[in-house]
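Appendix B. Chain record.
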Amino acid sequence: MISGLQLWITPRVILSAAMLIALAVLPQISSAVDNPFLIRVGMRIMILAIAASSLNLILGYGGMVSLGHAAFIGIAAYVVAILNWHVSNGEPLLSWPIVIEGSANAYVVAPVAIAVSALSALIIGFISLRTTGLYFIMITLAFAQMLYYLFIAFQKYGGEDGTQLLERLTLGSVSLNDRILLYYIALGILLSILIFIDRIVQSRFGMVLQGCRQNERRLEAVGYPTFRYKLVAFVIAGAIAGAAGTLLAVSQQFVSPADLAWPRSGELVIMLVLGGVGTLFGPVFGSAFYVVLQLVLDSWTTHWQIIFGPVFIFFVLFVKGGIVGLFKGPFWRHVPHG
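Structure tokens predicted for this chain:
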């Protein structure tokens, strides 16, 4: 019994528990020090952690390096914003052949936004996954840029300047104007997604997905339809990114094409490298480290990237397992990259 407890109570378990507790009590800390900005920081960390976790599913476990993953975040965010725009302007979204009104009900908006992101991932993945390596990277980047300029062309919804959500979303009869409520909803979603991803990775599906990263040809030789497995993972990742995009739109009450530009995808990759690629909690620590370091450096200079660059290079060269790679234990399932 004691040896079992010693096996599970490891530095990584303590670190993960500390992170979750810190996120859970952050609103109370914010209230105690009378600094509402801390809640915004916590929200940003959790939203980026959800987005990075979705990318980690296909990159960390499936070996699919995508530079267009932010497109799914932006698509969901724009679905929320467009539905909201039609509510505030009293104009139907579609008038023929059927009338479709806008909505500010989260029970309607969130599933639609996630579904549209998943459908977009299905279409993009069906085309992109027929390539590998550098070609896959470039084709996902191309799709992201196409969507970026597409949303810029939507002058009705703000074009390059973006659009503001004038109608606050509601969850049934409860308004999401309550920042504390929205915060804990985001925390619950983050925890649910981490558990979901963990179950996927430990399942037969997850084993095949990791096998695709290691030696896809061998799996094909023994009869596994690897393309289908990778496509399903790509769609799941797109849906999870859609959840992040929905939260992003609701939390900041503003959406712009920058939310789906390729630099946002690059930021997600950076977060994975900082936190630990192919680890369950790596995206959480990577996003937290990235957000906090950015805030600190930005308070020193507007050119904070000059300082951040060497820090990132240091992690790449000397902390190859990321933050979670500094701690070892059975709870953290690290996928070795050869």
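Further analysis of this model is presented in Appendix C.
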